[in-house]
Amino acid sequence: MAFSAVASACIQGMQVELIRVEADISNGLPVFHMVGYLSSEVKEAAQRVRTALSNANIRLPAKKIMVNLAPATLRKKGASFDLAVAVSVLAALGIVPEESLHGVLLIGELGLDGSVRKVPGILPIVRRAREAGMKTCILPEGNGAEGALVDDICIIGVSHIRQVCGYLDGSATIAPVVRDREEAVRLPGKEEPDFAEICGQSGVKRAAEVAAAGGHNLLLVGPPGSGKSMIARRIPGILPPPCEEESLEMTAVYSVLGRVEETHPLITERPFREVHHTVTKAALIGGGRAPSPGEISLAHEGVLFLDELTEYEKPVLEALREPLEERQICIARNHGTYRFPANFMLVAAMNPCPCGNYPDLGKCSCTQNQIRQYLGKISQPFLDRIDLCVEAPRVSYEDLKGGAMQAESSREIRKRVCAARELQARRYAGTAIRSNALLGSREVETYCLLDQDGERFMRRAFQVLNLTARTYHKILKVARTIADLENSSQILLPHLKEAAGYRTVDKQYWGR
Q1: 308-336, pLDDT tens digit by residue?
Q2: Distance from C-alpha of 471 to C-alpha of 445, rounded to nearest angstrom
Q3: What is the distance between the alpha carbons of residues 461 and 458, in angstroms, rounded to a whole number?
Q4: I want to staple 352 with a disulfide (CB 3.0 to 4.6 A). Which of 310, 358, 375, 392 is the partner?
Q5: Phi/psi class of residue 499: alpha, beta or left (left: φ > 0; alpha: ψ in -120 to 50)?
Q6: Is the entire prediction scored with pTM above 0.85?
Q7: What does the DSSP assignment read for 442-455?
Q8: Helix (H, G, I), strand (E, B), or coil: what is residue 19?
């Protein structure tokens, strides 16, 4: 009779749970039985492991083999336990020395020929292993570069079960995977569109700059062809590059979904997710029988763009209210609660009426009832979570012919945005706040102090614009960003006036 145990892990949403894979070999009927609240693909591991070991010239004895994945109260799914199951059985047989497994975590899928295949979720698993004090992670070779993104832990990449046996018994030497910081960076895609290509629309471009500088949500309202979508798609080009921690957080989300590149896993460009109006609520915020991240999590630390905002189903838009406030999404199921990151910048665009010409009554063919119903698809609580609402007017012939020659490039705008974000980084050093948009009501009182003129103006604006507590704080946060763009430590009256001006457009169309 022999017993052994090895460490592995599973993904529950974005949460990583460490799993103890136990193997017991005893006399009895020759069966390979697995227990521990397993899904069908995990139960099938018994056949994959038996066949893979046979094809690696390792014969299992005609004994009773029992494998348990603890804790038994946690549902296990996926094929990533194969390698840990195989090694636990080999350790129980004495083929692999048990002392070599101390502080080692194993993860990987086995092919029938004994090959070790890549699996999703490696980055968060390795980070959790390091937190748990593990010294070594044995991973599929295809996941080696991704695992090496985590410092202070040894990553061993293997392609076959025989390599694993050789490494653990000391008969073979495998060099740890070393992170090449330049090699790990995901290669840039196609060339980014530039703000210099936008003719006219100086007010809209200014609003986009303010939104990018503070991470604020932005709504663009205007007729078709006014450049709303063009401007939205150029906002990622003026955002500052993410820091190391932000890059790892973004990569972790894509890792869970198996979307990282094998040789260039690290994401160092902020994501831009454009979602069609037919999107379901589960696809947007995440969900499913076994909940997985949605589009708002794929846009984490980047931009989520909703074009033709009024065409989305109202329940879909209402589902965004909580993540826009909390910067995460919490999905409850009978078997557990799943949390996914959702610190994204929402950029939305819409027409002012069904024909797109309102408020130009000379061109608008819509009735007041049609306009009211059209705008009514956007609720006031949703609008309250928008920091800046700006009107995009029609582009004139003069702007179209000569505007591009005078327009600033994305590079020039990005310099100002980066300078403003650096001010915010210094101001909020030592806190979880990374941009002005993340300020809570208590932090607003600390970092958005006003002088007497500013207090008088905001008192008047609160009454005239019929502001809520939420919209009042949003004006202050936007004013803080405008002051940062001008390198001003104090929020001045012109900053407040510009910030309040970004709330007059929604009052013009929706009122209260």
Answers
A1: 999 999 999 999 999 999 999 998 887 77
A2: 14
A3: 5
A4: 358
A5: alpha
A6: yes
A7: HHHHHH--B-HHHH
A8: strand
